[in-house]
Give the backbone structure.
Amino acid sequence: MEIILRMQNAVIFTLLLICFIVLWVFYNFKPDYGSKRAIGAFNACILFVACLLVGVWSFKIYAILHVSPKHVGLWPYIAAGGSLIIWVATFVIGFCLRNFWIFRPSRRPTNNVF
């Protein structure tokens, strides 16, 4: 059991580092061609969705595993690991949606011959 907890601590630490990198990329690589107000609203919506999904995940894991005597000490680690994975996935999907689909640059044809 102690080895499992040590491995889970390492996994959670690694996921936490990945989470910080993803958040840094999400907030530093904004599209230049979109309205700053619209991009800010989209970022706030992604943050709200991520918090909502993490809250639902944590409550579900707590409701299922806190009553089990076999898993009584593991549910916080499972909830934290799953929450970080959900957090990273939500921000990666939000980044891709924001930069490549919703706020993509217009593709107007130019009148250049070459």
User: Anything to note?
Assistant: The radius of gyration is 20 Å. The mean pLDDT is 86.
